[in-house]
């Protein structure tokens, strides 16, 4: 879970310091300044949540406090806040985070504007319940979205026994679900196979072009003066009738043999 929550530390500041040196006006002049101005700033969306309806309203400061903490952190880290979303009177445990109206609206916007970072005041604003946190994070991670807790960006990098247990359980559940899907598909294939239905491999020409097989059978049953037609004779007859391979060439004798021997 090393990438679970983004940590803005010395590496970030060292990179910014290096950029200042590389694009310094003294070293590179106006062109360096232009390049520096084009350097894309990291963008993020602020997310706030208040559990109790008692803390919701114009005279309450919960959402204002959260946004202020997020903006302060973002400014210090050189991150641009391009939007904010708020779930009022929403409990932080139980239901999946994507069922929250504000969070769902935020995900919809993120999917359309390319922002890949969410900042919350604290981890429990994301979710109080650790299981909900882990499941929610996995969902975001699958979409390429990172989460930062403004009060302590490294807090969730620490592997606690409880967090490790939940991750192991989630991993086991995921593997179990995959195994069940594989077993169900295998069972379905076996049932179809018993009925004589082809369930695997590339479709035969009899399935994709039954008219070719029928024409080959008729040609093979023909009895000209020279005797029974050879496989090459059948192939030539098919070509004369306009039946060719997908590449526009006559069928090989082995292909004709398969049509006749197995009924394609």
UniProtKB/TrEMBL annotation:
<feature type="domain" description="Resolvase/invertase-type recombinase catalytic">
    <location>
        <begin position="43"/>
        <end position="196"/>
    </location>
</feature>
<dbReference type="GO" id="GO:0000150">
    <property type="term" value="F:DNA strand exchange activity"/>
</dbReference>
<dbReference type="GO" id="GO:0003677">
    <property type="term" value="F:DNA binding"/>
</dbReference>
<dbReference type="InterPro" id="IPR050639">
    <property type="entry name" value="SSR_resolvase"/>
</dbReference>
<dbReference type="Pfam" id="PF00239">
    <property type="entry name" value="Resolvase"/>
</dbReference>
<dbReference type="InterPro" id="IPR006119">
    <property type="entry name" value="Resolv_N"/>
</dbReference>
<protein>
    <submittedName>
        <fullName>Recombinase family protein</fullName>
    </submittedName>
</protein>
<dbReference type="InterPro" id="IPR036162">
    <property type="entry name" value="Resolvase-like_N_sf"/>
</dbReference>
